[in-house]
Amino acid sequence: AETARGWGEAVTVEVTDGVAWVTLNRPDKRNAINPAIVREMTAVLDALEGDPAAEVLVITGAGEAFSAGQDLKEYFRETEGWPPHERERLFAQNAAWQWRRLMHYRKPTIAMVNGWCFGGAFQVLVGCDLAITAEDATFGLSEINWGIIPAGIVTKSVSMVMPQRDAMYYIMTGETFDGRQAAEMRLVNRAVPREALRGEVEKLAATLRQKNPHVLRAAKSAYHHVRQMGWEQALEYLMAKADATKFRDPEQGDVKGMAQFIDEKRYKPGLGAYDR
Ligand code: ACO
Questions:
Q1: Which of 61, 97, 262, 269 qualifies as a cystine partner to 41, CB 3.0-4.6 A?
Q2: What is the per-residue pLDDT across 195-204, written as a single tens digit (0 to 9) for each?
Q3: Which of 127, 144, 124 is nearest to 67 (CA)?
């Protein structure tokens, strides 16, 4: 059935307890991103966006790798002979799923970094709202090692989340770093022992599932927009966004939350979510 919906080979999806586990599934090729993954991830994001059973998305990789980045053979070399407009369409579709789609995705997204993470995989990592890695995962901006700059939108992505000295160091040396270092430089939220990785992600997903999904969507999108604005515009935008969010909130969460705190004294908003 999944193949009929456009995926199932290069990407697999399993939905359990409100969480969609989206797995890049080319373990023999270290989940290098080829045109099939681009096509299937586009279909997966389309399908899960409208699937009420999928409340939180987790992106991870099968086998030893999260992803070894773009597939040097199938994504770069073999597309050189394509008609330019088709190659450009592939690249645009790739930027869409790895970055623009993910960043403003209607549901919360978590990158679960289970192993090798190189080059283009950083776009996916930064495109996800949150990231948890295995301590022993290996990261690298390896582009310099084969003679290109971190393009796609990788350089922009890392400049948004990594401190300047770290970003420049790894862009220029192509050296690898591990999950612990990734957490120290805040490229990910947390690094945990490998055996605890899935459990940590499940816990984080459970926390997100308790929150108002409509408000989560507005909050993450607002974050990305205000980073590009001046203070005056940000205030105007946020006040308008808050009104729009409240106006369209199907569960009128703030009214419930306020009543549960002030009138019913049932919960403390400082310490957890209202009862949905
Ligand atoms: N593109 C194409 N094929 C790849 C890629 C890739 N990015 N990464 C791994 N593979 C393939 C290998 O060619 C090999 O294929 P084969 O079995 O047909 O020979 C298979 O995956 C396994 O790879 P190994 O190198 O044997 O695996 P190993 O576990 O020893 O090493 C590592 C893993 C370190 C990830 C290594 O494969 C590697 O350096 N890959 C390239 C990483 C990289 O620089 N990615 C590009 C970043 S730049 C960008 O994304 C724009």
A1: 97
A2: 999 999 999 9
A3: 124
- Cα dihedral 27, 28, 29, 35 sign: negative
- Classify strands 11-16 and 19-24 as parallel, antiparallel or unpaired: antiparallel
Kindly provide the residue ranges of all beta strands, DSSP E only, lying in 4-148, ordered along the sequence. Answer: 11-16, 19-24, 56-61, 65-67, 109-113, 116-118, 130-134, 138-140
Distance 150 CA to ligand 1 centre (A): 16
Residue 215 CB-density burial (10 A; 0-12 exposed, 13-18 middle, 19+ buried): middle
CB-ligand 1 contact for 122 (6 Å cutoff) = no
Nearest atom, ligand 1, residue 72 CA: 1
Length of the chain: 276
Chain segment 110-136, per-residue pLDDT in tens: 999 999 999 999 999 999 999 999 999
What is the whole-number distance in angstroms between the Cα of residue 99 and the centre of ligand 1?
A: 22
| Cβ atoms 131, 188 nearer than 8 A | yes
Determine the Cα–Cα distance for residues 222 and 250; give it in Å rounded to an integer: 19
Ligand 1 contact, 32 CB (< 6 A): yes
Max CA distance (Å), the chain: 68
Instruction: Note the pTM of the prediction, 2 decimals.
Output: 0.96
Alpha carbon distance 257, 212 (integer Å): 11
- Our answer on whether the CB atom of 26 is closer than 6 Å to any ligand 1 atom is no
CA of 133 to the centre of ligand 1 (A): 20
Bridge partners (DSSP) listed for residue 109? 57
In this prediction, residue 55 carries a pLDDT of 98
Which residue has the CA at smallest separation from atom 28 of ligand 1?
30
Gap from CA of 69 to ligand 1 centroid (Å): 8
User: How far does CA 182 lie from the centroid of its chain?
Assistant: 16
